[in-house]
Amino acid sequence: MFHPKELAPNGVLNPVISWGNGAVTTPVDYPQLPHFASHGFVVIAANSSTVTAADVKAGLDWIVARNADSASPFNNKLDLKRIGGVGYSLGGLATLGNADDPRYVTLVIISGANMNDNARMMNLPKLHTPVAYLCTADDASQGNCAGDYAAVTGPVFFAVMNGTAHTDVTSFLGLGVPAVITRVAGASTAWLRWQLMGDASQKGVFVGMDCGLCKDKNWTVKPQKNLN
Question: Nearest CA to 134 among 186, 196, 82, 94?
């Protein structure tokens, strides 16, 4: 778990994020998670290197139950109407596999899109929330994200981090690139603040021909679909 030191400051409840990490890695390999917590999110992450949709759901069930537990420090501190799912690589697939969970308000998929049309037919109809695809520039990640983007009919944002490799976003074994880790953490946090906290100042990062990421040379942004 990753969470702010002070929960529900001044009575403002904390939104919740479920996290799914990539294969072989565990949550400690992602500096993005304490970054999310620093913005007021409570992050629940399965401590597994082979995370599944069932793991993601179990974690979400667990933290939701803590909100109702009078003995828990999270008792009545969480905003259960503002829950998001975030996943990278295998964890992105696990998050998409759990996308029909009605508790979700939004999803962020980081280089973890469906790998073929059969998987898309199984997972994408589950979507009922806006989704942001933030993908590395390697052929597999970019191609899988592009396939999902073309198939999603609801609100979707899709951008590629220029000049990046699939493993650049994790600190596992020193594979990550600090600038890329910071880049994806910033974009993910902006999306989550907009979607889960109602932070209107972050909307312009994603929406419109002149959006913040659209003007950033580090990103290639595809036309937004159904975002407003």
Answer: 186
pTM score:
0.97
Q: Any residues with CB less than 8 A from the CB of 80 and at least 6 apart, and which?
A: 16, 64, 67, 103
* Tally of domains in the chain: 1
Q: Are 108 and 129 in contact (CB under 8 A)?
A: no
Q: What DSSP state is assigned to residue 137?
A: S
Domain range enclosing 214: 9-221
Reduced 3-state DSSP string for 24-93: CCCHHHCCHHHHHHHCCCEEEECCCCCCCHHHHHHHHHHHHHHHCCCCCCCCCCEEEEEEEEEEECHHHH
Q: What pLDDT, in 10s, does the model give residues 128-175?
A: 999 999 999 999 999 999 999 999 999 999 999 999 999 999 999 999
Burial class (CB in 10 A: 0-12, 13-18, 19+), 153: exposed
Left if phi > 0, otherwise alpha if psi is -120 to 50, otherwise beta: which for 40? left
Give the C-alpha separation, 109 to 117, whole Å: 17
Length of the chain: 228
In a domain, 227, yes or no: no
